[in-house]
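Here is a tokenized protein:
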Amino acid sequence: MKTLGIIGGTSYHSTVEYYKEINRLVSEQIGSDQNPELIIYSINIDVMRRQNIDEINAKYLEVAKKLEQAGAKAIIIAANTPHMAVNYVQPKITIPFLHIGDAVAKEAQKLKLKKLLLLGNKPTMTKAFLKEYLREKYAIEVIIPDQTNIEQSHHYVSKELTQGVFTQAAKTYYKQLIENYHKQADGVILGCTELPLLLNNEKLSLQAIATTNLHINLAVSFIIT
């Protein structure tokens, strides 16, 4: 098995989910008496909340180099938003990032989805790092909600979900938001690690692409092949 570096902390709830599920799936696939070698570096989430891209890039480069030096053969970021740093960091290290966009695109292609609604926090929805990645590399169109719903979604993600708070109000809000866009898109990206946890087992109006589970599967595939 190959050693994987994990950059976590944004939030620690999602880091726990990645760690738990990677171990569980590897154990299922290669034998219950084995588990993968993982190196986790957990970042203070306040780095992301300050939204200073130079600070974010510098921190993720620092951490990526530490993981590389520690023996990781690839790096996975256990969150969506910090992927904004990948384009800056990747040319400066010699091991690959397992990009969440590749996991999303693989599932969209399997389901024959061409136009996706992207939900998450404000940076994930408004910045180019995921939308442009999917469009340029895979010709997948991505749309986002109107400004009012961008702000409302960001509030739920930053003030509740990333702090482990999952309310019925948030669940109802996202189900209705997805319903509002069911004629404008043929799928929805649950682009926050906590969104699939919030909407688990809920019937949605659009085919859901849960980035967390797909990203974890990409990690497991790397580890065991």
